[in-house]
Amino acid sequence: MSVAFRREGDEEHLEPKFEIPIPTGPNLVTARGLALIAQRVADLEAQLVPGGDETTVKALKRDLRYWQTRQITAEVVPAASGETVEFGTTVTFRLNGKENTLQLVGDDEADPAQGLISFSAPLARALIGAEAGEFLPFGGREDAIEVVSVKVSPTE
């Protein structure tokens, strides 16, 4: 007998919907990052309306579970000293002759286009602990990164 005649419905052939993966390691956030997470939770809760489209409601609930988990596990990192590159600092550096400025933030706050990079990113890990004037290895090259300046990031 053909499978077409045995199938109860199309549901069994739909792609399964998985939870949004939680990044490994601690959920370090800035005060700004914690506020952004709280705002995301509030926005998602406001979008959940009784009697809404089932597919939309499922997607919203999935997103809400992720952001509520991130809110519960968030650890606000105390203000950085600014002496070395660490979470919550803004670092200006030269890589391959090009000067860049990045702020080290939490995973959910990261937005490289805005100069916000996750503390767990390979470039951030290479920079952490460095002081201004230091040269660092990166990408298999010694002295690939020159740290120009380090300062405490502004809090919002």
Automatic annotation (TrEMBL):
Q: Which SUPFAM superfamilies match?
A: FKBP-like
Q: Which UniProt keywords apply?
A: Kinase, Transferase
Q: Where are the transmembrane segments?
A: none
Q: What Pfam family does this protein match (any one)?
A: GreA_GreB
Q: Which InterPro entries match?
A: GreA/GreB_C_sf (IPR036953), Tscrpt_elong_fac_GreA/B_C (IPR001437), Tscrpt_elong_fac_GreA/B_fam (IPR023459)
Set out the biological process GO terms recorded for this chain's protein: DNA-templated transcription elongation; regulation of DNA-templated transcription elongation
Q: Its Gene Ontology molecular function terms? A: DNA binding; kinase activity; RNA polymerase binding
Q: What are the Transcription elongation factor GreA/GreB C-terminal domain coordinates in residue numbering? A: 83-136
Q: Which PANTHER family match?
A: TRANSCRIPTION ELONGATION FACTOR GREA, TRANSCRIPTION ELONGATION FACTOR GREB
Protein name (Swiss-Prot/TrEMBL) = Nucleoside-diphosphate kinase
